[in-house]
What does this fold into?
Amino acid sequence: MSETVPKPVNPILVSIVVSLAAFMEVLDTTIANVALSHIAGSLGAGSEESTWVLTSYLVSNGIVLPLSGWLSGLMGRKRFFIFCILGFTLTSFMCGISTSLPMLIVFRLLQGLTGGGLQPAQQAIIKDSFPPEKLGMAFAITGITTVLAPILGPTLGGYITDNYSWRWIFFMNVPVGLIAAFLVRILVQDPPSAQKQKVSSIDYIGLGLIALGLGALQIVLDKGQQEDWFDSSFIMLFATISAVALILAIYWLLQQKHPVVELKLFKIPSFGMPCVMMFFVGFALYGSTTLLPMMVQTNFGYDATLSGLLLSPAGIVVLFMMPVVGRLVNIVPAKYLISIGMLINALGMWATGFITPQTDYSTFVLVRILQTLGLPFLFVPASTLAFSKIPPEHSSNASAIISLMRNLGGSIGIALVINKLIHSQQIQQSYLVQHLTMADAGFRSALATYTQTIMNLGVPLPLASTEAMAKIYQELLHQASILAYRDAYNFVAVLLVVLGIAALFMPSNQPKKKSAPVAQH
It folds into this structure.
């Protein structure tokens, strides 16, 4: 009888426990980025080969995300969640003891497969733990995990790598995972809608098409820039496989009575449009989180730890803003908060245009805070609106789709901003080189100053002139690089402004009304 009518547990306590496990998994999407060179050196691999440590994890993670709702129904949500925690913990330990790169890649692949269900299961458990009128606060808690973990990942990864060993990036998951699994076992209770369901047969075709399509897409996004995009037969092959498999998957899933991914949820306007916005939450979060550490390490001489620390203050601001926005959701319609969030983030992206070669650490911190200040205004209202008309029995499916959209947004965002960055560097270099002529007064003045300075060190005039030209060209590359980062951020800023306007046309919710009747649909 105790299984049928369980004693209720404080939803805040449940949220903290399930978020502990999900935080650990989201952290692993970015924590290994700064350790790749250490991993490659330790295992005797090249830097290009070591990137598969990231790719293998993202590919397997992306495959499991959309299937997690179906797997929750197959196993029961609580049992599935504990299975994911223990699987992620075990594979993390195996990653830590890996003695070769192929071994590490295999266990990273398994780590992504087992950990992929943690984010959507966490979100579904928290959503079902709170009454409908408190969904805003519920998603403020999940937002702390989703937004804060990618921000802190490079900081923590850089510190551990520089001061201990890259292996501790994986070993640290073991005690956290064991504690989280124990606490989930005794505190989390499945409502009837989340318990094990009868599944007459497994949709192997839908399962296979999704795995093939998303896996190939992730490889294209992760390796595209390295392989020169569609000039590469390798990328063309995987892009074709991805497109064909995903088109067939959508057609197949829409025909099934019990599909592995419930695409028909997109017919609900209050779900479909927030999902698009969640895609761009991932786009803005992961895209900007990738660019800033690259810029300060490439152009300003920061090491991995310092560039990671640059992101931490913004994470603290986000931590404090989440509960504030969680309360605002009950007062202000979600679409207005989303619009405000898009415009604040756009302002932060645009502010990077003021960065110069003389910009100091504190200015970078302020710019990063402005870049992330709008994220709580995006994540919490979009999640609240998306779930406002989702029946309890579809909570796990909805969470899986939202997590997939956010992660896909991150992968596509990183690929696009890096492509924009490299393209802009070439354009900016071409533009600046045009000024390296004796007809340009600024160039003549700089050349004369550098030449005289070098000659004062006892260098003959011909050699001093050559070294001065090399110095000017080096400075040109430096300035072109900074201008290219500005262009990449401005690209994201324009996109966010457009989305901020589009958000005003989203379905409206009634924040001041108790939405219990709506939630019963």
Notes: The two ends are 28 Å apart (CA to CA). Residues 1-5, 512-521 have pLDDT under 50 and may be disordered.
